[in-house]
Amino acid sequence: MIAESILVRGRHVLTSATPAVVDDGAVLVVGESIADVGPYDELRAAHPDAGALGGPYDIVTPGFVNTHGHFSEGLLAGIGEQYTLGEWIHGLINPIAPHLTRAMAYVATMLSGIQMLRSGITTANDMFVCEPRPEPVTPAVVTALDELGLRGVVSFGAGDLRSAGEVAPQLAEHEALREAAAASRLCTFRVGIGAVGGQSDKLFAASADLAVRGGHGVHIHLHEVREEVTATRQRFGVTPIAHCAREGLFTAPTLAAHCVWADRADRDLLARHRVGVAHNPVANMILASGAAPVAELRALGVDVGIGVDGAASNDSQDMLQAVKATALLARVHHLQATAMTAREAFEMATIGGARALRMAATVGSLEPGKAADLVVFDGSSPALANVHDPYEAVVYVAGSREVKDVLVAGRPSVADGDVVTVDVADLVARSRPLARELVTRAGLSHLSELAR
Ligand SMILES: [Zn+2]
After folding, report:
1. What is the mean pLDDT of the segment spanning 291-310?
2. Residue 221 Cα, ligand 1 centroid: separation in angstroms?
3. How far does residue 157's CA lie from ligand 1's centre (Å)?
């Protein structure tokens, strides 16, 4: 059987590779992969039978790589805005964690995943934070992502100090998720560590061992707030980043979320150990955590990607908002209009995130041989009627409304602005009683009109 081919056309094709822009260009997709990128007229003449997507005024980009999020918060958007991180963990996340069921995990992942796809995300690096149960919860994340057609890097945010629990059930949840990912079409597994402060010495050592010996990557929060750094210094005498380096965790490919409060020595350690960083500007602003030293990290050669973070701390799941906020926060932080260009933010959201996740061989740019993960922005939308600069158009002007088509591994996940595999109205209706049940069981009805 000959693999089906599609020619995806755009006025501007932004590749995040070389050449960076192909005007009046196209991407030839054959099966799951990109076969060619070049001038539309030449590719169309050479492939007259290929299907057609995009058009002469559209903008074609690589799919966005969302480097940090929590599908476990998919039922908790728009709640508890008054909290800073420590209060938010104790007042919201810890009470919720024991009550998340597999059914909730599936629906929460669907809700967040639909928003991600509609905003152009094709790869989501997730950490599901819950208490282990006899029936593992996290495999439902994999089920949902495969159904949605959203590439996932999935992890369980283990933490035995959340509820003074045991180590064995935490490791069993990792194992159940690893098995589900191994059997999936689009997911790969990482070892999740909620945070250094959330784990006993025993669990931390077992997690590092699981990652290093199993050949898995690691997904962890590091230096999100100053209090986290202070507490770990008091416990171990060093910062969380130095502790991870000392204990050998960074021997495994590690993606660290936030790194807002990383000082010069910490930043040097991240660079030396090739730790990728997920920058989450919207969540960092909502929780008043601070502005991450993105420029300093990038100057050291650290791969920095962009994350939307979870629905309980962003609270939207929209990558275009996060990309715009990345450029805006840099400008406000440095009080310079040149602090970050739209092109830099765009490249962080695509190839930068892929490098931070050590996935640049397969995703993050439009190049022959890579996975056909791409986005078509609608050039007939009023917002994109007049494109003076395609990077500024995508980063500052476009919203989810302009995301017309999304391919993941060559298959349409979004067509004409909507997800193709899910009955959205049915899913939304099914989510309401689950969200009400979750908030009520967690004793958080005082925060929710839905549960009153
Ligand atoms: Zn997080």
Report:
1. 98
2. 6
3. 9
Report the separation in Å between the CA atom of 283 and the middle of ligand 1, taken as the mean of its atom positions: 9
Average pLDDT (177-187) is 98
* CATH number, domain with residue 36: 2.30.40.10
SS3 content of the chain, % helix, strand, coil (to 5): 45, 20, 35
Q: Is the pLDDT of residue 1 over 90?
A: no
- On whether the CB atoms of residues 373 and 85 are closer than 8 A, the answer is no
Cα 128 to ligand 1 centre (Å): 9
Structure tokens that stand for 5 in this block: 């081919």
pLDDT value of position 2: 54
Spatial separation of the C-alpha atoms in residues 405 and 416, rounded to whole Å: 6
pLDDT of residue 102: 97
In this predicted model, what pLDDT tens digit does every residue of 273-296 receive, in sequence order? 999 999 999 999 999 999 999 999
The verdict on 46 and 96 lying in the same domain is no
CA proximity to 220, closest of 250, 198, 240, 193: 193
What is the reported pTM?
0.97
Range of the domain at 412: 5-62+371-419
Ligand 1 geometric centre to CA of 309 (Å): 5
Total number of domains constituting the chain: 2
Tell me, yes or no, whether 38 and 81 share the same domain. Answer: no
Cα 290 to middle of ligand 1, angstroms: 14
